[in-house]
Each structure stands twice: as C-alpha cells, then as structure tokens.
Amino acid sequence: MSHEGIRIVSAEEAMREEATPKLTGDAISPAKVRVDKSGGTGMTIEWRDGHTSSWNFAWLRAACPCATCHEERNAADRAPGIAKPKPASLLPMFEAPPRPVDVTPVGKYALRFKWNDGHEAGLYSWDYLRNVCDVEARKQSQKL
Length: 144
Hints:
By secondary structure, this protein is α+β, with helices and mostly antiparallel strands. The protein has 4 helices and 8 strands. A hairpin with a 3-residue loop joins strand 6 (100-106) and strand 7 (110-115).
C-alpha cells in the first residue's frame, strides 16, 4: 500500500531496485522534449548526455508511475510499459488507444499526462523516464 510520498515494498522488490543502478546528472536532464499529442505517435526526449529515448503513448500509459498503477503492476508482476491483459470475451468492446488529452510540465522535474481514459495521477519525472528507458535498453541488449 502507498500513501502520499511513502511506498512500502517487499524485500524482493527492494533487492531488484537496488540491483539496478540509477542514472544521475546529465543522464536524467533533458535537452529537448517532444510530445506528439496531435499526431498521436508518442514522446521523444534527447538527454544532455547524448542519449535519445522514445516511447509510444500506449507504453507510457501502461508505465504510469502513480502509486495505484505501480501497486497494480507489482501485484501482477508486470514491468512498466506492459499493459494489463484484457479479459477474454465473445464480443470484445472497442477501446480507444491511449492518448494524452493534456500534457503539462511539473516544475523542472516532470510531466503530467491527462489521459483520454480520465487517468492523470502519475508524475513522469525525468529520473523515472530515463531509468525505465535504460532498463528497457539493457533488457533488449541482453536478448541479442
């Protein structure tokens, strides 16, 4: 369970988080941020250390860092960016793809997305975005 600013984690989750080195400095400082809200393609950040990260909106929505989404992902053992499975049904209902209705900066450290499904609780900090990007890049390079 999480409360404002407090996150309770299991020992296993704490060990996983400690095993992943966190990036700092220019690695988590954006030089340029592009959110293609009207085109619907996603977001790209060019970091001051020269790295470029890109995400589509479906991935960003599934990686929401708010306490509710984080706890739900942990309970289902899903990584950030992996959407929860849809229930099987005979006649699946149409669901609009995730798109931001509004994107606003939060100070100099984060973005807040208001999604078309009404969700807007997550603050996507530069630190969070770069670190989940780096984790995904490492996973992809390990698969090669």
